[in-house]
Design goal:
There is one protein chain. By secondary structure, the chain is an alpha+beta fold. It has helices at 2-6, 10-29, 31-43, 45-64, 68-91, 94-105, 126-134, 168-173, 213-220, 225-228, 276-285, 310-318, 417-424, 496-512, 516-519, 521-553, and strands at 109-111, 117-119, 141-143, 147-151, 154-163, 176-183, 196-201, 229-238, 244-254, 260-270, 289-291, 338-339, 352-357, 368-377, 387-392, 399-403, 433-445, 448-460, 467-468, 474-479, 485-488. It folds into 4 domains: 2-105, no CATH class; 126-312, no CATH class; 314-501, no CATH class; 520-553. Strands 1, 2, 12, 13, 14, 15 and 16 form a 7-stranded mixed β-sheet that branches. The chain is globular and about 120 Å long.
């Protein structure tokens, strides 16, 4: 058709050349718009090729068929083939099944012989931080999703104050000119003064056109990356030069048969106002510095940091269902079939970014931020804790897990915790308050490592998606083994261990035949020190008396 039009004359040739140039320019400048289609082709390449080949064969036979009955049979075969493909692949989720199995086969998995300790426990849940942040911005502003990252050796929630998506003019004209950064260990986060960082990003998550983070990152991809890389979560942190940067986590799709998601590195966007040169660069080849997973070790600020997309860690955690073999998750087996428990009343589901300390353990795992999952059996009525999963938040190709079920520890899972908290305080108005975000709290208490689950009580209005961020939220610790609930003071984390021992110390002593020296080592040491001090005082008092008696005798 094009060849025929080309041969008609000079005018037609000129039109074809002009249209060709326009098409090439559109393909070049609008690649951020059609990149999702390229990713779709990459993700389902095997299925598309299989379906295309079958359709080509059937249509070839259809054209050569003489009788109408045979043609009808061929059409029914085509419809039946794609119906079966849809039913088994998507309805029964066998495509996701194979994709998850590919993740499991290509992931480095290490079983731990003991649990690591937790440190720097965060107080406020995710949605409380979001609510309090929105209480501190103006009408034409919004905040990006808070992310827990390491800043200056402390864990902090960071988020950008950016033009609201409802205001188109601000999105086209304004910049992101401020960051919120609040300590995660504080029960009363402040969104004022030193917690508001004045800084300008000309590229932001809510900004329009070429200044949008997604668009700028995709424009930076080369032709091969357009088919394999996908921008995901956005983080704000300091780099090795103590400058604030925007870090975009990337998902990379690997494999031909049932492609699966893996960590694809990050794209780092520097702060600053863009000039004409930056503008031209942004609309042509995008903006950002790509750092691949293998290069991450060369950037200290990215090691042990939180840069992993939750979409990846959820698939990796779910892949543990294949520990018992390829067929184990099928209905007639299911010995190690597990699920990630998503609580319907909790607006922020697993994973929970947690700070772990692996000191004294026989593993090369680093101390720092991990994505934690508490996996449970598939059945809704079974709520035991099967695996504790820790995935390095910096994208390290590793998965650590602790098998509670194999050790017959009888731990209660996350989905069992809300009712236990509600049962412990019947006087609460639980229609307006919800126990949320049950994250691990593991400490060395009474002679061994003990696992608790820390939950926060958040207020929520009826028919509302917002949690109220209280300045001093109520916190509840649930002993995963003994199922007892300990209410603790959010303002005094140093007293949490004392509160645990006061409530459970005698129970542990009777149940595990422990001595006071094991349960209350600090108390025993204090009493021993008091006795030694008393003996020393008595000795000092006796010596002068003996000396005085000796003088009188002389």
């Amino acid at each position: 058709m094009i060849k025929t039009y080309w041969n008609k004359g000079t005018k037609q040739k000129r039109n074809v050349i002009i249209l060709g140039i326009i098409a090439v320019l559109l393909l070049f400048f609008l690649r951020d718009d059609y990149q999702p289609a390229l990713l779709f082709l990459r993700r389902y390449v095997f299925v598309l090729l299989l379906g295309g080949l079958f359709l080509w064969l059937m249509l070839s036979k259809f054209r050569s068929a003489v009788s109408g009955g045979k043609r009808v049979l061929l059409l029914l075969s085509i419809v039946g083939f794609f119906a079966i493909l849809w039913f088994f692949g998507w309805k029964l989720e066998l495509y996701n099944y194979m994709q998850t199995y590919n993740v499991y086969k290509n992931l480095s998995i290490e079983e731990l012989s003991e649990l690591p300790l937790t440190q720097n426990e965060r107080i406020q849940p995710f949605n409380n931080i979001v609510t309090m942040a929105y209480e501190s911005v103006g009408e034409t502003q919004e905040v990006s999703l808070p992310q827990l990252v390491r800043v200056d050796s402390t864990n902090q929630w960071t988020m950008a104050v950016q033009p609201a998506k409802e205001y188109t003019w601000q999105r086209m004209n304004d910049n992101t000119e401020e960051l919120f950064t609040v300590e995660s260990t504080s029960p009363f986060p402040r969104f004022s003064k030193e917690n508001r960082i004045p800084i300008t990003f000309s590229i932001g998550e809510s900004l329009a056109f070429s200044r949008n983070t997604y668009n700028a990152v995709v424009q930076r991809f080369n032709i091969f990356q357009l088919f394999t890389l996908q921008p995901s979560d956005v983080f704000y942190m300091k780099n090795d030069e103590e400058k604030w940067v925007q870090v975009v986590s990337l998902i990379k799709w690997k494999g031909f048969f049932f492609p699966y998601p893996t960590y694809g590195g990050v794209m780092v966007i520097d702060a600053g106002v863009h000039n004409l040169s930056d503008y031209l660069e942004r609309i042509t080849i995008g903006k950002g510095t790509y750092i691949s997973p293998s290069e991450t070790k060369n950037y200290p600020y990215l090691k042990g940091q939180n840069t992993l997309a939750e979409e990846i860690s959820r698939v990796q955690a779910q892949s543990l269902q294949f520990l018992g073999g390829f067929t184990d998750p099928l209905p007639w087996n299911m010995k190690t079939a597990v699920k990630i428990p998503d609580l319907p009343q909790d607006q922020n589901q697993q994973p929970y970014v947690t700070d772990f300390d692996f000191s004294g353990m026989k593993t090369e795992a680093y101390h720092g931020l991990y994505h934690w999952f508490g996996l449970e059996p598939i059945g809704d009525e079974r709520t035991s804790l099967v695996f504790s999963v820790m995935i390095p938040a910096d994208g390290t190709d590793k998965l650590y897990y602790y098998n509670h079920a194999a050790r017959k520890e009888g731990m209660a899972g996350v989905s069992a915790m809300p009712l236990k908290v509600i049962e412990s305080r019947k006087e609460y108005d639980w229609t307006a308050n919800k126990p949320v975000e049950f994250r691990p709290f593991i400490k060395n208490i009474a002679g061994r490592k003990r696992m608790f689950v820390l939950g926060t009580i958040a207020a929520v209005q009826e028919d509302s998606r917002k949690f109220d961020g209280a300045a001093t939220p109520d916190l509840a610790l649930v002993d995963a083994e003994y199922r007892d609930v300990i209410w603790i003071d959010a303002k005094h984390p140093s007293r949490w261990t004392d509160a645990i021992l006061e409530q459970l110390g005698e129970t542990w002593k009777a149940s595990e035949n422990l001595s006071d020296a094991i349960i209350y080592p600090e108390r025993i040491n204090f009493e021993m020190q008091q006795r030694l001090d008393s003996i020393a005082i008595d000795t000092i008092q006796i010596v002068p008396k003996i000396a005085s008696d000796s003088t009188m005798a002389n």
